[in-house]
Amino acid sequence: MKALLEEAGPQGLSHAQISDRLHDVAPNTLATYLSMMTTSGEVERHGDFYRGVASVAEPVADTSDGGDPDAVEHAPAEQE
C-alpha cells in the first residue's frame, strides 16, 4: 500500500481508488491500515486523498569545491 501511494504522485489516491486497486483487501482492514500509516507518518492525508511520504535519501557528497567525490587522493610514490 505504501508503494502504491508513493507512486500516485503529489495528488495521492482517494480511499475508493485505493480500494479499487487493492480489491482483495477487506474494507475494514484497508481503513485500519490507512489510519495506522497516517498516524505513524508513513502516509499523509489531505482531505479525501492519501499520499505516500517519500523516504529520506542518503546524504549527498559535498562537491562544492568542484572535486570529484569518487576520487581518492594518493601520496606521490617515492622514487629510489
TrEMBL record:
<protein>
    <recommendedName>
        <fullName>HTH iclR-type domain-containing protein</fullName>
    </recommendedName>
</protein>
<feature type="region of interest" description="Disordered">
    <location>
        <begin position="58"/>
        <end position="80"/>
    </location>
</feature>
<feature type="compositionally biased region" description="Basic and acidic residues">
    <location>
        <begin position="71"/>
        <end position="80"/>
    </location>
</feature>
<keyword id="KW-0614">Plasmid</keyword>
